[in-house]
Structure formats: structure tokens, C-alpha cells
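Lab notebook, bench 4. Still working through the backlog of constructs that have no structural model yet. Next entry is a single chain of 631 residues. Request: give me the C-alpha cells for it.
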Amino acid sequence: MNNIFVKNIAALVLKNPNLAKKLQSYLPTEVPKVVQENGAYNLLYKEKMLHNVLNPLAEAQQIFAMAKNEPVSIHIIYGLGLGYLFQFAARNSKGAVILYEPDLNILWSSLTVVDFSNDFLQDNVFITDTFEDLSEAVYKKSGMKNSPELLSLSSQRELDAEGFNEFVSKIKNTVGSFYLDLKYTKEKFYPSLKMLFANIPNLMNETPLIHLKDFLKGKTAVLVSAGPTLDRNIETLKKYRNKYVLFTVGTAVKTLYQHGIKPDFLSVIETYNSTKQLEGLDLSDVNFITEPYSHSDLRKFKFKKRYSHISANMPINLFWGEICDEKVDEYWSKGTVSYTILNCARLLGCSKIILVGQDLAYIEGHCYSKDSAYKDLICGQNPETGIWEIMAKDLESFANSLSAHPNLEQRVVIAKDRLKNLNNSLHIVKGINGNMLPTESVYAAFVKPLSEYALHFNDRDYINTSLVGAQIDGFKNISLEEALKDVEDIESLELNVDFNYDKNLISSKLNNKLEELKSALSIIENGKKDIKNLNNEIKRYRNANQEVLKLLKKVSLTYLSLSSDFSNKSEIFNFITSADKINLDYEMKMTTEFTVETTTALVAKIEKFYTNAEKRIDEIDLLLKNVLRGL
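Model written out:
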């Protein structure tokens, strides 16, 4: 192989060794041809010139100029060609550059004629041919305030228009999923931690579901969600009620009760007060499955028994698992309660698992079942704008079903925010019948995890009865009638297990974690002293001179030792400061010029980080001490 290829592969090995190895043994099925026109090199592939025939460099510059270029930018380059756009981005981007070239013919050929070695070796550059690698790279760079920007040549988009459109859809879903993860980190970490601690007395009476593994071995499970097709399956659910174990999510439970159908298991996992979903129902014969961090008021209802599903993808649950010495690796979850009950049915041993109302799309304008908590939502074209959007037929009714807040105006505000979020995430998914259906990005993002679950745990029979909703690979698409007609009756569902938490162990570990947390106070005190010295120097010199910048570096290093090193050691500190850290890290990356004004503003934000941390350490100290006294 020529020297250019060897040089490129040597650089690529340091960034993506799997791709480097793949290219070393790759045999192109069609070799693009390098041609020279108008004094510039171009790439002819599948009878198409990949770059502008007049000025390919100017084309690359123009495409890059359309994107934001900030220290937090993520520039995804779709397609390499001869590398004009990639190289310009690699050499000019202030943020991250991720090259995605799925066509190995192009990638292999270009690496034999263009020296990319210096570009590959840049710290902000990553190269891949797989969507999985791309997703991981985007995840590492994503934040609440920086969405990736996709840059590509029109010619490369046209080479595989279907593949490109599929890629765009997948990357939207992926970014939406990452955004939700970050939003959870920013908004939910600390409230979830406080809720977990407040729940500990209740958790002592909740058996972790894993201790009932395979209690329902061989039985059929029906998992009810609140999608529009639930209404079409009500009569069949009633007809065969003695043949299956019924799991339901909170938003669908009132629909079932409305028709005299009582579930065996009910699951609600929200951290907000969602008791409206359950009010007025006799749940004394229903088993309740929830998360350790879910809202405390959910536990005030009288249930037959309560069980914990300690989702392994939630950092707060990993922490709880460590504290109570419970393994959590079998509690698969993706943050949606429908996925949770799917995993519950598998853990309990059900061999046939049937989805009802799991449409993951808006069917004929309906977002949810007509008797569900969200029954007032519809999806249609706004008559004023002509744009598809989700609307509430009755805003006040929707607000009342969504929130238990005592103030109506506040309930309406919450409802409007929910509608805004839903409309910001409107998306399109492939339907069971091959048609494209409107949905929200959250639901679109759930299609793949459900498919992957069925393919991974492929020793069960998975059935989707929607027939008009989103296509979920790995699930058979058949009617509920057909799925249940030959199932044998179930005689008993008694779940008896002797389980008790070790309260002494929990108390001991929490005390140790509390003492560890409080040791952050001395670091914070030193950080505040550094800030005081820096502010004095700024007042003294009135400019960002060498001495001021030297102290600023010391202030930054103290903050980083706390926000990174100490956070890695103390999970509780990480939970209480993650939201502030996300914002502050963004501000630090965006500060590229250090003047008196920018330095003073940045230091004030670091000081606020310390103040908030101190306040929350005091709150956790008081909360935990009260909880521990109760144990």
C-alpha cells in the first residue's frame, strides 16, 4: 500500500483502531476515480462528481460558514469525498468535528490519495463509519446548550438519498434521547436524590422485584399502555381476562377501570406528583411496581403489595443498590414506564408478552386512549399555520389531569409547557403498514430500545397488537384476539416471598456517605478564599494582568478538583451539583477572552456554585439525619 495510506492508517489507529483495522484489510467493490477539472481535484463515484466542479474548496467554506462555530459546537461531517469540507472543518472548528463516512469505498480510496494524518490527530476530531460510534462521540460532546450541526455535500446526500434520510432520522432520535438524559441530569438528579432519601422508610416495605424472579414462569402477560388502540382492544381484554397477567402503566389504568378491568400489576415511576392518575380507584387488590426515587405520594395509596424496580440505567438507583447491597443489573430500563413493565413481565418469567396500546405514534389524530389521563390531546394541522402540532381539546381539563398542583393557573402553566415540549419534539416514524406516522421524538426514540430488548431476550414470544402504530421489530404484529384465543386459564397469582432489608447496613453506609459529602466543605472554603484573593487583585489592578490570570487559574483548578475529582469520589456530591456543573462548564468553555468583566462574571458563577453546594449539603445533612433516626 502507498505511503499516504500507511500514514493515514497510523494516525487513524490512535483515534479509531477498529476502523483502521477494517480499512487495512478492505477490498473496494467500486473504486472512485480521482479527476482534475478547472485546476482542482474531484472524485467521480457512481457517475457523479462529489464536489463542486468549479471550486470545491469554496463550496466547503460556504457550507461550513452556515454553521455556528463556538467552543461547544459539534460539527458532524457526513461523507468524506476528497476531504475538502472535512479538512476545512478540522482546521477551523472551535468545537468538535465528527467525520461520518458509511461508504468504505470512498473512505478507503480517499485515504490512498490525500494525507489526512495531521487532521486525524487533532484532539477535537473523531472519525467513524458506524452510527454506533457516531452516537457515542456525539453523546460525549452533547450538552443542554449545544445541538450537533450536520454538514454535508449535496452530491453525497444524493448518492444514497434513502440512506441519508434514514441517517437524519436516526441522529434526530439519538440527539433527542441524549437531550432527555441531560435534562434528567440537570433537572432531576437532586430532586431524585432527595426523593430517594425521603422514601427510605417506605422502601423498607417494598420488595425488590428480582426476589420474585420466575414466579410467573410460563404465563402470558398483557402489557397495557395508553395509546389510541387501547380503546379498540377493551372488549377482547374483558373476554379473555382469566387467561393473562395484566400489567398496566398509570396513564392507562383509569381506562381499564372504566370498563371493569382490574390489573394485576400497576406501574408508575414519575418523580413528579402524578397521583391524579390513580385518584378515586380501589387499588387494594393491585400490586404496585415503582422506582426507589419515584414521588413519595404514590406510596400513600392502599395496594395489595409494593415492589421496587431498581432501574440499572439510573445513577440514583446504582447508588441505592450499593447502599442496600442489592444487585440491579437485571433491572433493564430506558426511562419509560412501558419499557419497565416489559422488563417486569420478563423478570417474573412470563413466556408470552403482549403489548396493547403501545402505538408509539398518533393514530388518526389521537395521541392517547379516550379515557386515559391525557385524553384531551389531539394531533392535527393548526388551521392558522398549517403545521402539524399537538393540541389540547380542553386545556383546563388537560391541566387538571396532568398536575396535582393546588393552583389552577400553575396547572395551566405546567400543561402549556408540556404541550410546548411535545410540539418541539414532533417526529415521524415508520408504521406497521409501511406508512409514515406523526409522533414525538421521545416515542420515536423508544422504538429501537423495544426492538433491541426483544432481540436480546429472544427466548420469549413478543407480540404487538397495535396493527396501526409504529413498527417494532422483534414483535409479531397480530391481533389481541389471535394472541389470546389459545392461551390456557390462569388459576392463581399469589406472590409470597420472605424479604427484609438489612437496616443496620443501610444506616452504616449512609452515615459514611454523609461524612464523605461533608468533607467537601473544606475544599469549598479554600475555593472561596481563592476567589476573595482574586477579587481583591482585580480591584487593585483593574485589568486582567498576569497576576490576575495566575489567580484565576488557581480558582479554576480548585473548582475542577471539586467538580471532577471529588464528584467522582462522592456520588451524593455529584447528584447535588451536576446541574450547576453543566451550566458552569458551558460558561467556562465559552469564555475565550479574559478581561476584567469576563473574569469577574466567571468567578461570580464559580462562587455561586460553591454557595449552592453548601446549601444543598446542609439540606441533605438534615434530611438524612432525620431518615436515619427513623431507621
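Notes after review: The longest helix spans residues 161-203. The first strand starts at residue 33 and ends at 37. Flag for follow-up if needed.
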